[in-house]
Design goal:
Layout (H helix, E strand, L loop, with lengths): L2 H11 L4 H11 E9 L2 E4 L1 H14 L4 E10 L2 E9 L5 E11 L5 E7 L6
Parallel strand pairs: 1-6
Antiparallel strand pairs: 1-2, 3-4, 4-5, 5-6
Length: 117
């Protein structure tokens, strides 16, 4: 899977229902995934899936669009835009990740401004 395809698939998972998330998480992230953003630090696919469910509850029509991907030596940087109802841009940010030898995301760190910052 190309870096762009990996990030597109990973971004789409954030909008999928719980039963569809886990097979995609297995394909895109390592067994021992760590995820960190300004709101939390979590470990494991189940915890990430739960966090994604919370995101969906807070941003019901939220979708991430990957705008660019840079990669080298097992590291990736993806820039994204979060859109809401009607495709309105809500926020932009970037995510950095280390990648496993089999090409899945291992350690993901999201960067974006917190509301009110």
């Amino acid at each position: 899977m190309t870096p762009e395809t990996l990030w597109q698939r990973y971004a789409a998972i954030w909008s999928q229902p719980r039963d569809a998330r886990m097979p995609e998480l297995v394909a895109c992230v390592a067994d021992d995934i760590t995820y960190c953003d300004p709101n939390c630090t979590i470990r494991g696919r189940d915890a990430l899936s739960d966090y994604m469910g919370g995101f969906q509850a807070n941003v019901p029509e939220g979708r991430f669009a990957i705008t660019s991907v840079l990669s080298h030596h097992g590291r990736m940087l993806a820039h994204w835009t979060l859109t809401g109802a009607g495709g309105k841009a809500l926020q932009s940010g970037a995510s950095f990740a280390l990648v496993t030898e089999d090409g899945r995301l291992h350690s993901v760190s999201g960067f974006f401004p917190l509301a009110g910052s």
